[in-house]
Design a protein that fits this description.
The protein has 152 residues and is mainly α. The chain is built from 3 helices and 2 strands.
Length: 152
Amino acid sequence: MSEKKEPSVWQGFKAFLMRGNVVDLAVAVVIGAAFTNIVNSLVKGIINPLVGAIGTQNLDAYRSCLSSSCKGDQGIQLLWGSVLGATLSFVITAAVVYFLMVLPMSKYLARQEARRKAREGTHEVIEVTELEVLKEIRDALVAQRGSGHDAR
């Protein structure tokens, strides 16, 4: 009876690193970090000035005081401007990712799937047609044999 050796921890780790999805995840993290800089620049360079036309360019300046006296950083303050800035940053990031990455990729994959199904559909039609032709040939040969046996 032969025993199978358990893979070593090192071999398991090596197999884990060689999986494609680990590399894909690493690439996604690096691209995501670079993409964050673009989104932050977009918020600081375009969104904040547009908001600044209404109020202030720095969304962090928007705050509300809950205590009786708020001077400087003293008192209880709600920093709703920074929450608004983070929310805008998230919405912009999600919109850019969806419209520039997810939507085009899903359309591309749908086209590829439609092409694949169209190719499979034509193969099936050809196979069915060939099968029908072969059946007709068989039936014709059987009919010829049947009439040839009757003549003897």
